[in-house]
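=== Given protein ===
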Amino acid sequence: MQKLQVSTRRSLALRYGAAVASVTLATAVGATLAPVLQGEMPFVPFFAATAATAWFGGLGPSLLSTALGFVAGMRFVVRPDHPWWTATPHNLTVAGTYLVGALTIVIISRAMNRASERAVERQIELEREVGERVQAEEALRKAHDELEARVQE
């Protein structure tokens, strides 16, 4: 079976640019909501950024979004008062939880994208088969009509 080339593929620059833009937006939302949430659920905007990037850009950009989301979240949302991330039990737990959640989003999105691609490939294959069968039926009908005309002579 030939490999399907989807003509609606977005350019690499657009896909990776969307990853950076989504993390930038998530950082702004997270930093704005941080005082209100008081440290509860600091990575929710970054999960949304990863999910949007996975849908729009695919695997590579969503992995970039995951990494950038971790760095931006730890730097600007979770611990904005520290110069950089330190390996404390709390920070390790927060990092592990975020990474497991974000990578789960990436894996599920990738599986959905692949299933969708396979469905499109199968649809194209089935449409080709239907066309072949219609042609075969037309040829059979024509042969049947010719045979009937000979019998009637």
User: Anything to note?
Assistant: The helical segments are 12-37, 44-57, 59-78, 89-152. Residues 24 and 72 are 8 Å apart (CA to CA). The radius of gyration is 27 Å.
